[in-house]
Structures are given as structure tokens and as C-alpha cells.
Specification:
There is one protein chain. Helix 6 crosses helix 16 and helix 7 packs parallel to helix 16 (456-481). Among the domains are: 2-101 and 482-548, no CATH class; 298-396, no CATH class. The strands form five sheets. Strands 2, 3, 4, 5, 6, 7, 8, 9, 10 and 13 form a ten-stranded mixed sheet that branches. It has 552 residues and is of the alpha+beta class. 40% of the residues lie in helices and 22% in strands. Strand 4 (159-169) and strand 5 (175-181) form a beta hairpin. The chain has helices at 14-23, 26-33, 44-56, 65-69, 74-77, 89-101, 104-119, 187-204, 222-230, 244-253, 300-326, 332-345, 392-402, 422-430, 433-443, 456-481, 503-509, 535-543; strands at residues 4-9, 125-134, 150-153, 159-169, 175-181, 211-214, 233-238, 264-265, 273-283, 286-295, 351-363, 378-390, 404-409, 414-415, 418-419, 490-491, 497-498, 515-519, 525-529. The two termini are 23 Å apart. The protein has 18 helices and 19 strands.
Amino acid sequence: MDVQVEAVYRNSYLNIISALFKKLGLPQLIDHLVPVDPQCQTRVSDAVQAILYNVFDGRQALVHLEHWAQEVDCEKLIRSGLHPSQLNDDALARHLDRLYEAGIHNVISTCLIHIYRKEGLSLRAFHADTTDKTVYGAYESASLEALQITHGYNRHHRWQKQIGFGLVGNEDGIPFYGDVHDGNLPDKTWNPEVLSRVHEQLKQAKIEDEWIYVADSAAMTKETLAQTKAANAFLITRGPSSLRIVKQALAEADAQDTTWSDPFTLAERNGATYRVWETASTYEGHPVRLIVVESSALDQRKGKTLEKERTKEAELLREEQARWERHPFSCREDAEQALASLKASLRPRFHRVEAAVEEIVRPKKRRGRPKKGAEPEVETLYLLHLDVEFDQDAWEQARRKASRFVLVTTVPKEWKGQPMDAQEILKLYKGQISVEMNFAFLKDPFFTDEIYVKKPERVAVLGYLFLLALAIYRVFQRRVRQFITPEHPLKGPGGRKLTRPTGQAIFQLFQYVNVVLFKLPDGRIQRSLDRSLTPDQRRILQGLGMDESIYV
């Protein structure tokens, strides 16, 4: 008998994700948390892996997952003996329900704690934020405790049906805590609640150490400050410009005798330059440090607002010039009164205006033709003359003020033997981008397309599985970046150098790796790659502690 080709699978980078998932010990942990049902041909961990790998491969509706499973090597990706037909939509729905009944939040929280332990990740500082995701189905549930999929305004002020995601993670963006919550839960309510839950997770991990909670301005509330203290934590947040203590700090920072720090940068190259100045105050009975930050990179929205104000002011002054030149006064007293009123009403921010009364003498207009030889009559009139000039100094000062913001923190000036000066606080706050980048993953239609399930309970479970997929993605990216550095870059698509590659950039390098299954004459199945791996592909696998065996 000849060797026959049994199948060709386009596994690409999925085998790497599968190997990482198993190395983290997550299949065993999930089956421990949601025990295997002896009447089921599949385990909960099978369904979770199938859904996760489908997310990484360009997510499809669960009804199509069985067909997708026929195109990938399920036995290698998930476990031996698993057939794609066992991953039908009915089986997956049952496992989603079992996950919900077992307490999906606790299941995923336990998995995240497990990942942090396995990876030896720092628990020093966490970044927190929320986002929303639009859904379109008519979801019905008999339970009042189920996820409330409600209409609300998203962050772009659009009215939509939505659910909320909450994330708390480290500077690498790896979630330590995540939740799927009601679509209209405000951040001011979420922050104190999540502080309590993160504290419980830390206690579950038997960690009683102090930690830092970094969040946006919605965390600047009495309840959040109180809960931060109760959770054995310190807060770093951005002070809302409407707060009295923030206004006062900005005013003091603008004084002539204020001593600012020397300019510094946080990025290695092409980064903004910062100056900081610090003061202290109290808010709702809590002592806080106020750090005024001045950035060389003006916020884009504030820059547009300033430009609009300047343009509008220039147009208004031109109109005023034209109006007063068209309307002369017959007596100086009236002109002087109009001048005083004009000076009181004009308060330009970006222009210098010099206004004065000008006396002009001109022939007096009469009806008809003047008599022959008659001396022309003249009249004396008074005009308001405006001399407008753009004030470059005032403009630069306004831009400087617009580029300032205030950080509010309860972190002491020295913590765990390390100085926590204003520059270090700013550095921690700027790490907030790590959690915001996670939202791009959660909203990317490639990974998390529309949610096609009928019950809010299943929507919640899928949402939590998206969070677990995000954690795996971030762990993968972190591991790759440990050996792909500016000193040892990687050659990416188009020949460009990758010094801090994203997970997706690495995925592209493995996009065309296929596995061929051969049926040998003795009936055994043998796997083989359809082509040799490139040196860069081998380097990545070696850096991850893997080799070709993850495919064959």
C-alpha cells in the first residue's frame, strides 16, 4: 500500500497558542473548577479551548464552530480522540450553561490568578478601566440576576444596546481581574466595587502586601478613596478640572515664583517632554498629593478647541473694526463713551487691541448742486479706530496651560524603600495605556465579532472567555518581547525591523504554516509540516521553549 494524504490543516499560529495554554496548566484547572460530566463526550476545557482558538483564528458564530473545527487539527490543538462533530452548537451551549452555573466570574478569576503565579508577574501596581461592547440580539432571561443588557450611551455618545467590560491589569496589559457587567454601570460605581474584589483576589492568592491602583478621573470620589484605603492600596488618578483643589493647584502652578522640575522624557525616543510641580491638600478628609504636569504634547482635542477660539476671536474683532468704521459720531463725548463701553466688552485672549478716538474733517454732504462760488461746508466727525495684533505670548501661554493636568495620589513619597517622586507617579499613570490597548483587542471584529447567542447568561460567559483569550494573548506577547529586543530585533513582513512586536505581528509570521496528515501503510497517522520553518520562526519557537513537535 502507498502512503496516503489523510488531511491538510492550516494550523498556523494556533499550535503556539495551544501549547502555551497547556503549559500554563489551564485545561486541568478548568476541568477541576467545572468537573467533567460522565454523560458528555466532551469536557468544559474542550469547549473553552475550541472557542478560544476560534477567537484567535478570526471568530465565528458558535453555530459555525463545528465546521471550523474540521479545518484545524483538533486532536493536536485540544486533545487526542476529540472529533470536530463533538463540538456542535448544542454541546457548546450546554458547556456555556455549565460554566455559568459554576460561577463564570470565579472560574476566570481563578485562571487569571493562576496565570500570574505561573508567570511570576509583579503585583505592585494595577491599571483599571472600563469599556462597552455593542450587541444587537433580543436576549431574554427569567433570572433577575442575569447580566442586564441595556440601552445606554457609549463613550462616543451613541445610544446603543451594550454590555460593559471592566479590566484591572499590570503594565504588560495582562489582566489580573476582569468582569462583564451591566451595560449602564457608571465608572464611579464600578471603581469602589472592583477595589474590593481585587483585594479579595489578592487575599485568595495569599498576598497581603500593599499595592497601587491606577485609574482615570472617575476614580476621584469619596467612596473610591475610602475603599482604596480599606483594600490596603494607594490611588493614582487624574483630578477632574472641576474640583476646587485641582483649580487651586493649577492657579498656584501658574504663579511667577513656582519652581518647576527640569524637563524630562519617559519614552526612549520621539516622546513628549514633561515638567512637574507638586503640592499637597486634602479631599473628603483624605490627605492627597497633587502633581501638576505640563506636557510638550498638547492634547489633540484641546489644541483644536484653542484653534477654534482663536479663529472665532479674530473674526469677531474684524467685524468690530468694520462696524465702528462705518458709524462715525458727531461729538467727541459720544465717541468717548462708546470707546469706554467697547474696552469694557472686549476681552480678547489671543490678540492685543489698541482702541482710540480719531477726529476727521470732511466736506459736509448737502442735497442738490452747490451754488456757484459757494465755500464748501465741512463737518468734524469722530471714529473709533481699532488696531488689532496677534499676541504670540498670550497664545503660547494658553497652549501651555491647556497642556497641564493634575494627578492626584495617596502614594507616600517613599514606598517599599523606593522614592515615589512626582516623576515616578507620572510614569505609573502613563502606564494606563496598557489597559486601554486591551480594549482594542476586545473590540476588534477579527477576535470578538458579534455575539450570536440567545441568553444573557451565555453572553456573559462568552464575554469572560474573551477576557481569558486576552490574557493568553498578552502572556504570549510578553514572552516574545523578552527575547525580541531593540538589540536583537526580528525581521517582519516587508523587511521592517520588529523591536517590540505585537502578538498579531508574530501571528503573521506563522500564517502559512500548514500540517499534512499522512496515513501510513500500517494504518498509523503521521503529521508533517508542508514546508520547513524559517530561521525566524525557529527562533520564536525556541525563545518560547517550543519546537516543531507542537505541530507534528
